[in-house]
Design goal:
The chain is mostly beta strands. It has one domain: Rieske Iron-sulfur Protein, CATH 2.102.10.10. The strands form three sheets. The chain has a four-stranded antiparallel β-sheet with strand order 2-3-4-8, with no helix packed on it.
Length: about 100
C-alpha cells in the first residue's frame, strides 16, 4: 500500500531550485521546475556524490555543482556519455502541497 507524506508546500521550493528532505534512507532533493513540476531525487550525484540540490535546474534536468554532470529529474540518470543513476522517489503535487511516497 502506498503511503504519501507531506514534505512541503510548492511555494516553499524556489522555481528552478530544490529543498532537501532528510530521511532514514538519506537526503532527498525535491526539485521544482519553471513549469511547477516536482521531482524527488537522491541528493547525491552518481559520479562523485555531489549535492544535486545545489545544482542548476533547467527543463527537467539538473547540472551537478561539482563536475557539471547532467542528471534527468524524472529517472535520476546521467546524460550520455556519462553513466550512472541517482535513486528517484515518487512525488506528487496536490492543491499546492508536495507529497513524497514512503
Amino acid at each position: 500500500m502506498t503511503q504519501w507524506t507531506k514534505v512541503a508546500l510548492l511555494d516553499d521550493i524556489p522555481r528552478l531550485g530544490a529543498r532537501v528532505v532528510h530521511g532514514r534512507q538519506g537526503n532527498i532533493a525535491v526539485f521544482r521546475t519553471a513549469e511547477d513540476q516536482v521531482f524527488a531525487v537522491e541528493d547525491k550525484c552518481p559520479h562523485k556524490g555531489g549535492p544535486l540540490s545545489q545544482g542548476i535546474v533547467f527543463g527537467d534536468k539538473v547540472a551537478c555543482p561539482l563536475h557539471g554532470w547532467t542528471i534527468g529529474l524524472g529517472d535520476g540518470c546521467a546524460d550520455a556519455p556519462d553513466e550512472g543513476c541517482a535513486r528517484t522517489v515518487p512525488v506528487k503535487l496536490e492543491n499546492g502541497v508536495v507529497f513524497m511516497e514512503l
